[in-house]
Amino acid sequence: xxxxxxxxxxxxxxxxxxxxxxxxxxxxxxxxxxxxxxxxxxxxxxxxxxxxxxxxxxxxxxxxxxxxxxxxxxxxxxxxxxxxxxxxxxxxxxxxxxxxxxxxxxxxxxxxxxxxxxxxxxxxxxxxxxxxxxxxxxxxxxxxxxxxxxxxxxxxxxxxxxxxxxxxxxxxxxxxxxxxxxxxxxxxxxxxxxxxxxxxxxxxxxxxxxxxxxxxxxxxxxxxxxxxxxxxxxxxxxxxxxxxxxxxxxxxxxxxxxxxxxxxxxxxxxxxxxxxxxxxxxxxxxxxxxxxxxxxxxxxxxxxxxxxxxxxx
Length: 313
Hints:
Blueprint: H1 22-52, E1 68-74, H2 81-98, E2 101-106, H3 120-131, E3 137-141, E4 145-147, H4 154-159, H5 161-167, E5 194-198, E6 203-211, H6 214-223, H7 226-231, H8 236-247, H9 249-252, E7 255-257, E8 265-266, E9 281-283, H10 295-298, H11 300-312
Parallel strand pairs: 1-2, 1-3, 5-7, 8-9
Antiparallel strand pairs: 3-6, 4-9, 5-6
Helix pairs in contact: 3-6
Protein name: Putative alpha-1,2-galactosyltransferase-like protein
GO molecular function: alpha-1,6-mannosyltransferase activity
Organism: Hapsidospora chrysogenum (strain ATCC 11550 / CBS 779.69 / DSM 880 / IAM 14645 / JCM 23072 / IMI 49137)
């Protein structure tokens, strides 16, 4: 029986041809394109969802409780402890009567970088805004002053919008005597951010109101910028305030200037409007550290008047 032999393979096989790589490359290209399209779609959906949802950043809106925080910086190295005790009592008793809060700090609580200790008042104001985020106003009042009319609220004296508008000094040089920058003629009371008066030298920064909010934080942080301290202005933070008020539109646009006797009457009349019976605040600016003209001695009769007024209120 004969079997057919299978055909013999050629001893000369065809040359080797590598398998085509076009198909895998095409698949990888398509996968990349699909991935990019998918990422693009997801990105668009994320952006759309973000714009339709609530803004993740919200500036805190103060509730107004407390309505006012009285801020004072005391310096035991300058004034006697007995006098400073009356200053603190003056603030606390007045605040308690009207439902306000007090923030009493010491000058050495803050690092002023080797510059004048008076810079601590700006730092204390910023500190108070952080400590009382829901207050409506802070009232900075220097340590050389007493509140003299405890029956009056600060709202009735100056802060109520209509009252403030009736007091505003409009279209007037913001820093006397001849600043070309003049206060706004049409500022509304509810839009005022800094309420301040003038004395014979310039802005009377020993007594001023700052409305709480993002504007107040901006002002205080700009004011205490280390760059300004390095300028070495003659009157330190007071001259810096006058500088930024005149040359920074964001700050200047919300300045309300009021008559000095509204909240900063001076017992030394050569420095500004003199204190008269019935004025809201008596400031002993210019008193000495020691001697018969010391702040402690000068303040005695005003402290007695305040105590009598508290008893009668």
